[in-house]
Amino acid sequence: MPCAGVAAATLWPHMRTLGHSNRRQFLKTSLMGGATLLATRWSVSRAFVPAVPKVEPARSRVALTAGEDRADLAYRGLKTFDKQLAAAIGNRRVIIKPNNVSIANQLSASHRLNLEGILEFLRGIGKTNIAIAESAADGPTLDGFANYGYDRLAAKYGAKLLDLDREGFEIVHCFDERDIRPHPCRMSKVLLDPNSFIISAAKFKTHDRVVATLSLKNIVVGAPIKDAGFHWGPGAKPGAKTDKAITHGSGFRGINYNLYALASRLHPHLSVIDGYEGMEGEGPTGGTPVPQRVCVVSPDWLAADRVAVELMGIDFGNVGYLNYCGQTGMGETDLSKIEIVGAALKEHVRTYKLAANLEQQLIWKKPVGKA
Q1: Helix (H) or strand (E) holding 151
Q2: Cβ distance 211 to 319 under 8 Å?
Q3: pTM, whole model, 2 decimals?
Q4: Topology of domain 60-365, per CATH?
Q5: What backbone torsions phi and psi does residue 101 show, to the nearest 5 degrees?
Q6: What value does the mean pLDDT take over residues 267-290?
Q7: Domain ranges of the chain
Q8: What is the pLDDT of residues 352-369, one digit of tens each?
Q9: Which of 168, 186, 162, 171 is nearest to 97 (CA)?
């Protein structure tokens, strides 16, 4: 489209025969006419440009189910994402990681019925390459599996049982707040394997170091392995050790930072958080039951943990590692941007009693050197 300046320049040879005042008037008229023409053409062209609809940003989706059938709660939550999960899993091996911080305290550990709901769903979408895998914190992993009935469940669904302590490791470094240095930690090869699709079968539990333990912490602290023969208390094999303590970073700041820093490599691809019966108070092993009858499911593990924190009546601002993950974009933590499918969130909130040392745990909020 020619502009007014181009039009005037084109006519300049004809202007030389005009007087000074006439040339000035001619130029003024030409510029005004060109501007008018340009404005007219612009408005006409805009009239033919179709309106672009406003596109809202994609929202993280979290399924919240409620009811009296523990296995069905997990199953119904997973059905919300059936096509998405079938595609995401593809040909990868599915690793169901329970939270067995104890091998003999069912309240602190993932319940068989929650795992059954997951296995039933996986069978329904045609996935058969499945393992239930753990490195229990306080004793032989397979003993815990037997205590909780996982062996019968695995036989029913054709799943394998894996003791992560026997499946190899990689060295990953963790921060220690005592010397501000990285320290090597043996981490499960299975959980680090890109060909593993990791499902965190976690629980609603309060915690005596990080306020709440949910789907992320289940993976990160379950990944460090221990030597055969290690357990807490008398009878442990001499010299046997566990690397789980290394991830705790020697303090409240250290553990929050390590959970955040390790999350980039050690996070679930799918969170199934069992709130059928949670634990409050001195978790992760010494707390008391909270009957809540819910389950939270999402491929966005951070959104799932965020919703679970809300359901537990916990101030999200007090959970350091999840705030760090949210601040660096690992998932969604803004409830207004999370689409909750199923039961109404506000109808199922319970206020969990927190550990007695809560104020000490919150030191992560303060600058180093200021208690």
Answers
A1: helix 150-157
A2: yes
A3: 0.84
A4: Rossmann fold (3.40.50)
A5: -65, -25
A6: 98
A7: 4-47, 60-365
A8: 999 999 999 999 999 887
A9: 162
